[in-house]
Design brief:
Length: 404
């Protein structure tokens, strides 16, 4: 019996959909190789453009050319590095605390459209946006034995150092003995004669030095950073004098921090000086404002320490101590200069029941395990960080570098 062989007529054309699917996959791979590759190349050029734009803007701010000039430099360098079609995204560059500050940071974000060749076949747009962002900082090159402890200018003026020495901003003829008291509680920081500061510059995520008055994100430095500043000094600091220089309060002090400072007995260190604001002054003003009268210099806003929202927080600056705008706790000190001090001793407030730090009327202060007394000898005072480290009065000498 003869059997008919099965026919294959019904399978004709089966390769067509297979080839079609293969072509789709092939086009997808081509799109991935060509279009995505082009997007990556464009991204790389925009990274270069953003880096160059941020550095150019930072350099412009460092040279005191003003924000308009810095904005122009950012655009010019973005175009020079990425070509036509690149734009600086609306709202950028951003400056913190401002382009006019002696140190700070600038963020630049650039964007461009990259044409895609094969992606439209797959239903995607014929172009894609590509963006990149860079952050650069500028600040003083001065380095010195700066320690992370502020001294209150009010105590300085009652300690025998007169206004003429502060304005002269130089070496004192004779060292002056002085003591400073602090209670290491956040609610007491606004009334302290000395207290901790965060000396981190704009280069870190724990930025503390030279922030805006209403900067909302003050954070404490870690203990290792603090002890390193005590032992080796901070760098990259600068002052806006005669304008305020706001620096975050650091509430993270621990006994090892104070003992690290005490280990440097008989050595000289540079202590930032805080203008707390004149208690009861109406309108608010600081000791620095009174000193500037007749000098030909002026400040762009009243001096004095501030709370988190940037409002004046003059002594005693504790929670609920006054009307609106005067409530603590203090969030930022107003640094107006540097005092060079020889460290005599650092004493804890519960040693021996009483310590030699006294109230203004001379009455010894009571024992307090949270309190610390600093005994020093003043040897100099500076309103210029460069003079403090022997580099001269030159705010055009700065470091400018990328941080992101």
């Amino acid at each position: 019996m003869r059997h008919a062989r099965p026919g294959y007529v019904g399978e004709r054309g089966a390769t067509v959909p297979i080839v079609a699917l293969a072509l789709v996959a092939l086009i997808g791979f081509v799109a991935l190789a060509v279009d995505v590759g082009a997007l990556m190349v464009k991204r790389r050029s925009l990274v270069n453009a953003a880096d160059a734009a941020a550095l150019a803007a930072a350099q412009s701010c460092a040279k005191k050319a003003g924000q308009a000039a810095a904005d122009g430099q950012a655009l010019e360098y973005a175009l020079a590095n990425a070509g036509d079609g690149v734009v600086v995204v609306e709202g950028y560059p951003t400056y913190a605390p401002s382009c006019e500050a002696a140190s700070g940071r600038v963020a630049v974000r650039v964007q461009a459209q990259q044409t895609t060749f094969f992606s439209p076949v797959l239903g995607f747009a014929d172009s894609q946006p590509v963006a990149a962002e860079a952050v650069a900082i500028w600040g003083g090159v001065g380095t010195g034995d700066f320690v992370p402890f502020m001294l209150s200018e009010g105590t300085l003026l009652t300690c025998g150092i007169g206004t003429e020495e502060i304005i002269a901003a130089g070496e004192l003829a004779e060292p002056i003995d002085c003591t400073f008291w602090m209670n290491n509680k956040i609610e007491e920081m606004g009334n302290s004669q000395w207290a901790m500061l965060n000396l981190n510059t704009a280069a870190t995520d724990r930025w503390g030095w030279n922030v805006a008055a209403d900067y909302p994100s003050c954070k404490p430095a870690n203990t290792n950073e603090t002890i390193q500043w005590i032992d080796s000094g901070a760098n990259g600091l600068s002052l806006n004098y005669p304008d305020p220089t706001y620096v975050c309060v650091d509430s993270g002090a621990t006994p090892p921090t104070f003992w690290a400072l005490d280990a440097h007995k008989d050595e000289e260190r540079l202590f930032p000086v805080n203008d707390p604001g004149i208690p009861g002054a109406n309108p608010p003003r600081g000791y620095t404002d009174d000193r500037l009268v007749g000098t030909g210099m002026s400040s762009n806003r009243p001096h004095g320490q501030v709370n988190k929202t940037g409002d004046p927080c003059p002594l005693p600056c504790t929670p609920g101590n006054g009307g609106p705008g005067y409530n603590g706790p203090v969030d930022k000190y107003d640094i107006v200069g540097f005092a060079k001090l020889r460290i005599v001793s650092v004493e804890r407030g519960n040693q021996g029941g009483e310590i030699t730090c006294a109230f203004p009327d001379g009455t010894p202060r009571p024992s307090d395990s949270n309190a610390w007394c600093l005994k020093v000898q003043w040897t100099a005072y500076y309103t210029d960080v460069y003079a403090a480290v022997g580099q001269g009065d030159n705010f055009n000498v700065v470091t400018v570098r990328l941080i992101r």
